[in-house]
Amino acid sequence: MKSEFHAKLLSTMVDVGEPRFNLAHEKLFNIVVDADEILGGAVTGERSLTPQEWESLSTVCDELIIYAKAHFADEEETLVSRNYPNAPQHRIIHNQLIEQLNEFQKKVSEGSDKNLKELRRWMLEWLLNHVNREDFAFAQYFSTAE
Ligand SMILES: [Fe+2]
Ligand SMILES: [Fe+2]
Questions:
Q1: Measured in angstroms, how far is the CA atom of residue 143 from the centroid of ligand 1?
Q2: Gap from CA of 128 to ligand 2 centroid (Å)
Q3: Which CATH fold would you assign to the domain 51-146?
Q4: Ligand nearest to the CA of 98
Q5: I need a labelling partner for 23 at 20 to 30 A (CA). Which of 17, 34, 59, 77 fits?
Q6: Percentage helix, strand, coil, to 5, in the chain?
């Protein structure tokens, strides 16, 4: 069950005009929420994560990376096949996001809690920012070009 805060955030995520992608974005968002709930408990309680919480967060991150890679590959293939002019740049951005997710995962596996607040903020923002900026850009391109 998503909190009101998470439901509100999800409502700001744009429709990218492709139902399969919208579903994938929502699924990714739900995994982000799982991570946020683990981090949020510690941040609001002004405490570190327990060993079990680090472990759960690590499992959530694994799932997130696997799912993000699958969605990104699907999206990139579609953008290329539909001759989207910014497909190469879009792929680069996806690769950077995967790198950042891997870095996040590394911090989690080290149980590093120096910047829990920052980790939490980044986790909450990366997906929405990407969908609402770069994915929305292809949505707008296809809605006018086709
Ligand atoms: Fe994308
Ligand atoms: Fe996407």
A1: 16
A2: 10
A3: Four Helix Bundle (Hemerythrin (Met), subunit A) (1.20.120)
A4: 1
A5: 59
A6: 80, 0, 20
**pLDDT confidence of 5, banded at 50, 70, 90?**
very high
Identity of the residue numbered 53: E
Is the pTM value of this prediction over 0.85? yes
Q: How far is the CA of 41 from the centre of ligand 1 (A)?
A: 30
Distance 20 CA to ligand 1 centre (A): 13
> How far apart are the C-alpha atoms of 40 and 31, rounded to whole Å?
14
Q: Could you tell me which residues come within 8 angstroms of residue 7 by beta carbon, excluding any fewer than 6 positions away?
A: none
CA of 65 relative to ligand 1 center, distance in Å? 14
Q: Which residue is listed with tokens 């497909």? A: 87
CA dist 36 and 91 (Å) reads 26
pLDDT tens-digit profile of 54-89?
A: 999 999 999 999 999 999 999 999 999 999 999 999
